[in-house]
C-alpha cells in the first residue's frame, strides 16, 4: 500500500518522497515491491484518546483489531487474518519499537508498556516477512517514537471520559547541542464498561539520543511500567449478554480473575556511516517482566510468570546501485512459570513449576537492485530456534524436554514504474510461526510440553497497483493477497478441562482477499477510505470426528470498510468523522455460531488556542455515536457458548493538552 498520513491536517501529507526502513533497506515507498503503509502521527496526537493502539492503525486495510476494552487480555491484532487466534496479547505479528524488537523470540507481544503518547511514525508491512524478521512475522508493525526535535518543550495533559476513563501525563524534551533528552510520566486507568473490568497502568520512559558526529549516533532508552490490576470480566453466553451487557461472568468474579504486571526494559542502539555507501547499526536490550494472574480455574488457575528476555542485533549496509544489508539477530527468552491452586481467589498449593527457554539466532541477507523502471528486492533468512523445558515439580514425574525448530525463508519482489504517477508490484515469500512457550506449556496432560504441536508454515503472494497525484494530495491503491498455511496453530477448549485453553494444528488453511486504500484532498478537507474483502478458510482440518474442510476460520470478519472525513478551518478548529463497517464472522471452527456485522461512527474535534508563549488544545471525542450494540471480543471455540464480550455503547471522552 502507498504511504500516506491519515486523520490529520493536510500539511502532514507528503506523497513526493516517503522513505521507509521496514524492509531493512531504506528506500522510497514508491519503489518498494511490498504492501507498506507509513504514517506520521505528530499532529494526530493532539486529538487522540491515547488508550488503544487500534486508534492509530485500524484504518489500514487488512487490519482488524478486537478486545480493546479487556486490559487483562490486551488488544488482539489481526493482519490479513493472522493473529486472530491469540488467546491474549499480540500473536503472529512482529512488533518493533525504535528499532528494537518488542516481540519475544517465541512470537508473543504485549503492549501495556507501549507509550502511545510519543508515537511519531508507524510503518506497517502486510504480508509474510520471515525473510526479514524471522519467527511470527505474518505482518510487521514498526513504531518510531519522538527522539529528536528543534527546541525544548513541555507538554502536560489531562483527559477524562465515560466509565471513569482517565489519563494524565507529562512529557518533556530538552535539547543541548546535539543531545536530546525526553521524559514521559503517565497514568492511565478506567473502571471499565463491564462490571469487574477495572484497570490501572503507570508508565515512566526516559530517552537519550546523541548525534556524536555527522556520521554516528547513539540512543539509550529506559522504560518501566507498573500495572497493579487489570480485571477480566470473562465471556458471556448470548442470553446473558442480551440480558445485561455490563455483566461479568459469575465464575470470573468468584475466582477473582485478574493480572498484575511489572515490566522493565533497557535498550541502546548505535549507528555509524563509514562513507556515503557503507554504514553499520546495532541494538542491544534487556527486559524483565513479572506477571501474576488468576484464571477461572481451580487446578493451576493462579499463575506466576517471571520472564527475562534479552537480545542483540547488528547489520552492515552497502548503498551502491546494488543495495545490500547483511545482519544477525539474537534473542534469549527465559520464563520461570509456576501454577498454583486457585481456590476462589485464594492462592494455595503449587501444582506446576518449570523453567522454559527459547533461544533464537537469525542470519539474513537482503538485496535491492534498481534497473531503469524496475526495482528488484530479495531476501533470505535462516533461523535457529532452540526450546528447552526444565521440570522442577517432580511429584508427577519429570517432563523436561528439548525441541529444535529451524527454518529457512526466502522472498523476492519486483516493482515496476508504469508512469510518473503509477506503479505495479508483485512478490512472494515464505514464513513460519512456532508455538509460543505458553502454547507449548498448555498441555492436556497438565505438565510438560505439548509435543504434538508443530510450527506453522506460510507461503504468501501479493500483487498491487498504485496511482497517486502529488499536486492534489491523493492516491488509490489496489492489492490482491493470498497466503496458504500448513499446520496452523489454533486454540480450543476441552470439556474434560473446562475454562482452559489448549492448542492444536489444522492441516491447511488459505487466506485471500482484496485491499483498497484511497484518499483525496479538497482544500482543507481530507476524504480517506479503506476496504478489505477477504476469504479465510480451512483447506484441510480434521479434529477427532469433525471435518472442518471448507469452513471459515473463526474470529476474522469477511470485510471491513472505513470512511474518514476530516476538516480544519482557518481558525484551527479540527473536525473528524470516522465510519466503520465490520463484516460478519464465526465464533467456532464448525461455523455454527454466527456473529453479525456492525457499524460504528466516531467523532473528534479540537481547537488550538495561543496564550502568551503557550499552546492550549481542548479536545472532545465521541465514540459509537448511535449506540450500536456489538461485541468487543469473540472468544474463539469457547465452551458452553461463552463467546461474547460486549463492547461499550456511546462513550464520551475529552481533555486538555498544554504545550509550554
CATH topology heading? Maltoporin, Chain A
What is the correct CATH architecture? Beta Barrel
Q: Helical stretch count?
A: 5
Q: End-to-end distance, in Å?
A: 37 Å
Determine the structural class based on helices, strands and strand pairing: mainly beta
Question: Globular, elongated, flat, extended or rod-shaped: what is the shape?
Answer: globular
Runs in which pLDDT lies below 50 for 5 or more consecutive residues are 1-15
CATH superfamily: TonB-dependent receptor, beta-barrel domain
| DSSP helix fraction | under 10%
The total count of strands amounts to: 41
Rg from Cα: 24 Å
Biggest sheet statistics: 22 strands, antiparallel, barrel
Mean pLDDT: 91
Total count of domains:
1
CATH class category name: Mainly Beta
Strand residue content: over 45%
Structural account:
There is one protein chain. This protein is mainly β. The protein has one domain (10-659): TonB-dependent receptor, beta-barrel domain (Maltoporin, Chain A). It contains five helices and 41 strands. The strands form eight sheets. It has a 22-stranded antiparallel beta barrel. A five-stranded mixed beta sheet has the order 3-10-11-7-8, with no helix packed on it. The protein is globular and about 65 Å long.
Offer a quick outline of the entry.
This protein has 660 residues and is mainly beta.
Could you list some keywords that capture this structure?
single chain; about 650 residues; mainly beta; Maltoporin, Chain A; 22-stranded antiparallel beta barrel; 5-stranded mixed beta sheet; about 5% helix
Amino acid at each position: 500500500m502507498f504511504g500516506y498520513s491519515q486523520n490529520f491536517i493536510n500539511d502532514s501529507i507528503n506523497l513526493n518522497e516517503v522513505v521507509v526502513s521496514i524492509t531493512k533497506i531504506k528506500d522510497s515507498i514508491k519503489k518498494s515491491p511490498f504492501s507498506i503503509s507509513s504514517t506520521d502521527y505528530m499532529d494526530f496526537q493532539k486529538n487522540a484518546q491515547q488508550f488503544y493502539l487500534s486508534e492509530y492503525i485500524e484504518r489500514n486495510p487488512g487490519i482488524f483489531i478486537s478486545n480493546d476494552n479487556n486490559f487483562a487480555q490486551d488488544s488482539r491484532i489481526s493482519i490479513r487474518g493472522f493473529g486472530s487466534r491469540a488467546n491474549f496479547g499480540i500473536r503472529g505479528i512482529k512488533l518493533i519499537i525504535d528499532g528494537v524488537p518488542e516481540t519475544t523470540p517465541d512470537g508473543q507481544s504485549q503492549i501495556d508498556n507501549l507509550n502511545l503518547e510519543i508515537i511519531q511514525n508507524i510503518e506497517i508491512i502486510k504480508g509474510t516477512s520471515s525473510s526479514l524478521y524471522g519467527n511470527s512475522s505474518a505482518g510487521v508493525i514498526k513504531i518510531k517514537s519522538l527522539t529528536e526535535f528543534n527546541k525544548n518543550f513541555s507538554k502536560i495533559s489531562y483527559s477524562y471520559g465515560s466509565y471513569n476513563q482517565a489519563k494524565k501525563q507529562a512529557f518533556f524534551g530538552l535539547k543541548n547541542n546535539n543531545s536530546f533528552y525526553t521524559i514521559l510520566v503517565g497514568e492511565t486507568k478506567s473502571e471499565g464498561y463491564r462490571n469487574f473490568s477495572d484497570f490501572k497502568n503507570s508508565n515512566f520512559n526516559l530517552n537519550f539520543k546523541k548525534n556524536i558526529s555527522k556520521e554516528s549516533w547513539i540512543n539509550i532508552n529506559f522504560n518501566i511500567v507498573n500495572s497493579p490490576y487489570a480485571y477480566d470480566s470473562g465471556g458471556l453466553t448470548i442470553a446473558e449478554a442480551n440480558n445485561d451487557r455490563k455483566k461479568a461472568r459469575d465464575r470470573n468474579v468468584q475466582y477473582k480473575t485478574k493480572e498484575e504486571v511489572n515490566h522493565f526494559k533497557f535498550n541502546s542502539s548505535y549507528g555509524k556511516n563509514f562513507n556515503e555507501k557503507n554504514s553499520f547499526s546495532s541494538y542491544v536490550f534487556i527486559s524483565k517482566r513479572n506477571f501474576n494472574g488468576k484464571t477461572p480455574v481451580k487446578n493451576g488457575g493462579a499463575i506466576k510468570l517471571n520472564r527475562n528476555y534479552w537480545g542483540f542485533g547488528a547489520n552492515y549496509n552497502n548503498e551502491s546501485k546494488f543495495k545490500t544489508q547483511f545482519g544477525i539477530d539474537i534473542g534469549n527468552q527465559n520464563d520461570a512459570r509456576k501454577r498454583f491452586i486457585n481456590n476462589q481467589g485464594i492462592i494455595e498449593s503449587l501444582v506446576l513449576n518449570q523453567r522454559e527457554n527459547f533461544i533464537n539466532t537469525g542470519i539474513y541477507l537482503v538485496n535491492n537492485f534498481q534497473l531503469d523502471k524496475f526495482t528488484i528486492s530479495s531476501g533470505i533468512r535462516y533461523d535457529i530456534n532452540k526450546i528447552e523445558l526444565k521440570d522442577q515439580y517432580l511429584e508427577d514425574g519429570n517432563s523436561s524436554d528439548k525441541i529444535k525448530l529451524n527454518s529457512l525463508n526466502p522472498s523476492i519482489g519486483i516493482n515496476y514504474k508504469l508512469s510518473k504517477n503509477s506503479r505495479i508490484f508483485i512478490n512472494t515469500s515464505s514464513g513460519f510461526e512456532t508455538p509460543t512457550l505458553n502454547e507449548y506449556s498448555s498441555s492436556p496432560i497438565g505438565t510438560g510440553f505439548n509435543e504434538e504441536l508443530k510450527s506453522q508454515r506460510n507461503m504468501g503472494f501479493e500483487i498491487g497497483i498504485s496511482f497517486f497525484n502529488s499536486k492534489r494530495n491523493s492516491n488509490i491503491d489496489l492489492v490482491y493477497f493470498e497466503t496458504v498455511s500448513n499446520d496452523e496453530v489454533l486454540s480450543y477448549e476441552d470439556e474434560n478441562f473446562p475454562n482452559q485453553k489448549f492448542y492444536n494444528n489444522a492441516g491447511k488453511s488459505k487466506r485471500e482477499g482484496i485491499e483498497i486504500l484511497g484518499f483525496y484532498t479538497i482544500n482543507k478537507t481530507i476524504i480517506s477510505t479503506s476496504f478489505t474483502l477477504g476469504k479465510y478458510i480451512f483447506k484441510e482440518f480434521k479434529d477427532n470426528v469433525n471435518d472442518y474442510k471448507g469452513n471459515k476460520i473463526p474470529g476474522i470478519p469477511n470485510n471491513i470498510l472505513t470512511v474518514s472525513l476530516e476538516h480544519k478551518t482557518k481558525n484551527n478548529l479540527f473536525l473528524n468523522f470516522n465510519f466503520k463497517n465490520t463484516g460478519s464472522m464465526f465464533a467456532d471452527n464448525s461455523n455454527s455460531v454466527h456473529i453479525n456485522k456492525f457499524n460504528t461512527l466516531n467523532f473528534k474535534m479540537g481547537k488550538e488556542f495561543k496564550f502568551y508563549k503557550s499552546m492550549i488544545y481542548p479536545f472532545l471525542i465521541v465514540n459509537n455515536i448511535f449506540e450500536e450494540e456489538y461485541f468487543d471480543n469473540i472468544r474463539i471455540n469457547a465452551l458452553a457458548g461463552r463467546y461474547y464480550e460486549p463492547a461499550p455503547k456511546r462513550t464520551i471522552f475529552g481533555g486538555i493538552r498544554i504545550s509550554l
